[in-house]
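Hey, can you fold this?
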Amino acid sequence: MSETVKKQPFFYDITLRDGNQSLKKPWNTQEKEIIFNHLTELGVQGVEVGFAAASEMDFEACSRLSQISPDNIVISALARCIKHDIEKAAEAIQSAKKQRIHTFIAMSPFNMEYVLNKTPQEVRKQAIEAVSFAKKLMGNKSEIQFSVEHFGDCSENLDFVIESLQEIVKAGATVINLPNTVERTRPSIFVQMVEKVYNALPKDITISVHNHNDLGMATATTVESYFKGAVQLECALNGLGERAGNTNMYEVAVALHNAGVDVPLNLSKIYELALIISDMSNVRIYEKAPLIGPEALAHRSGIHQDGAIKTKDMEKGAYRPIHPSLIGRKDDEKLGFTSQSGKTAIFEIITEAGYPITLGEAQRIAPVAKEAAEKIGELSTRNIIDIYYQNILTVKGAFKFVDIEKLSDEEIRLQFKYKGNEYNVVSFGNGPIDQCIKAIQKAGFNIEFINYEQKALNMGSDATGMTIMYFKAPEGKTIISRGCDENTFMANIKAIFNGLNIIENEKEII
């Protein structure tokens, strides 16, 4: 492939399939929908929405995302080279305008012998039959993608793989994906293999790469593969994926951008999306992570500080790969909060200090911090943490908890005030949280409880436990509230009343 005449890269997201399957707590359909909507805003051209045959939950998610998918995005579902998997994938994505069946099988000598227990000819036959079946089932309404699992381990039988792929293309595959399923070798060796496949197949076939990051070189391998013919780049948000993860989409996009390639993504969405994905996946962003890490723009060396200050307002900085605004970063090589800062700075400062916070909570307290900064200038970390305590862990409002009395295992008496009016309610329920919520509902207040979780924290002698509660506000959005106390039960109560006040305060703003 000429390095001067290149096709625009096709970004194929695998966060909702490969990334999700690696999480300790995989996302449900509602969570996947949130992420899918962010992917459309980012501008990816293809999304692998799941492995439809893996479970009912995966099938449901694939179906839902195909139903809401924009007409210009390819919606793909994964399937083994098995008819049942292919049929489930086809059924799951039938609502999408652009459909793709993605089927795969390993072709490395090691995996064929020790994992599949099949001969190379048996594997080739199964792959061809699967692609033929998928093509016959879908006709012209769908693309067929075939992946050579463990392609990175196929250097010794590459001729066999290429011959197989030529037959697979004749059977109906339009996209050939070459995964580095486990990264074991140098990027240059893998890239040479990709180039050989590219040269051996018809030029109307899309070549794709899917690289894992076991040795930390997935970005380099993916970027260089593009320059050798791989137009489709399979990447994950935040680099999520099995073991050390998949190729990080942000790194690939920015690397190609810096190389002068027309990258069809909204790069300004990257930073905020990275924070959202970290929060939803419960996978912390490593502080030194390229581009998105809290320390990615920090300088401590005197020489570096001098160079950074002298080039601060220039598009090209002395000690940064890009201008932070390219990916939506506003901190510009320092962490601090002034009246000109916003929710992202709040989020970073509080997170770096070791306290849990979401972007929504940061946005809620940003005006309070701005008002304080207008009076005293840049706020210290201690100032920000004080505002966090006062506005996240103790939310002032119309509701005020007074007392709670346990009458039996199933019954409580709850006393609270609302706008000065006192309420004394007896309620039955399954456990103290359910009892308390039902008491509030019985008093005439419409509150819809979704879920809760608890964390152990070291935030002082009077607050070692945190309850995080999720409520649905009347307008439909999810409200997160927190309560801290050395007593878990009281942490629950505080979280409930903080949630009530958050919902009430937002009503008044509206």
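Oh, and this one too while you're at it.
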Amino acid sequence: MEKPETNPPVTPSTPTVPSTPSAPSCGSDMGSLPGSCASLAFPYVPMQGPNPVRFSRMEGLQTGTLFPGLDLPFKAAIQARTKLANTALVELMALDFAIDELGLYLVTHADDQEVLQLYWSYIKMAKEGREKYQKLYGPLLQTDLTPEEGYAWLKDPWPWDEGGNN
């Protein structure tokens, strides 16, 4: 009597990928490149010290970070093409961006009193700027409606329409 053929068990940590000349068999912690295997990623997380140098709000909005030490070099090409007009709406965007960035920084640097004071001053400026903007141009958000005006969210012109942000 012939013995039945048995296959070794396959475990989830060792996936079976057929090895061909164009697709080598790589481990679960590897990715395939043409002709070889490579690590999936080499993560790098820069650490910020206390009191880091900061961009201005507008420059932070354009670069994608308030901190030059976190500025990614590949973004230079995008930054060169992304020039924002100096309008009331863009200033509010820059303030909101800076508030978010400073808030993230304060999560890991809660004792940085200089940044904390800047954070609170930006919140105050954003609140005042938002109130002034809404008096001139109407609500920014659907939740910024006033009961006496009814549902004024769709009133023209919109901020991005011609004449809507003058």
